[in-house]
Design a protein that fits this description.
The protein is an alpha+beta fold. The chain is 29% helix and 33% strand.
Amino acid sequence: MSDREQYTPGPASGAQVKKDGEMWTLILVRELRHKPEKVWRALTEPAHLREWAPFDADRSLGTVGNKVKLTWMAAPTPQVSEITVTRVDAPKVLEYNWGEANTRWELEPLGGGTRLTLWHSLDRRFIAMGAAGWHICFDVLDRLLSGTPIGRIAGVEAVKFRGWQRLHAEYAKQFGVKPPNWPPQASQNS
């Protein structure tokens, strides 16, 4: 059995939301066993992002002012957004935005590792879905940086992945939102 077949996401944890009308900010915190410099490369370099993130980037996210096309692995088809990198303080803070949506990454040294905090603006209807998806992406990132990659699990594939439905329901309950009924049931072989 491969590492990917053995992977099951842990319980919903390390998340909160800031509510502001229809756009809410998802805040996820994860402690990683890797130094901030290593995590920074995974957050900014397209080749690394392709291995774990829910999007591909057409150029580096590590330069202020860069206009970057992100191709999100969204359901039912990928979506392309152009973002602008607004803040880079390597390896501590990365911010980018598109329209009124903002994303901020903060990396804090923690022992020999990193406390990674993500702030991500989302329509409130998709906040639990976003939390479940980022939760799995963070798990994939941690395994990638540890040298035991399991491959990206994002978009439609994440929604069908065993454990996603449970995470989605746990985050929905935690945030006090009703999860939509449309995601397909998890595949037993994913």
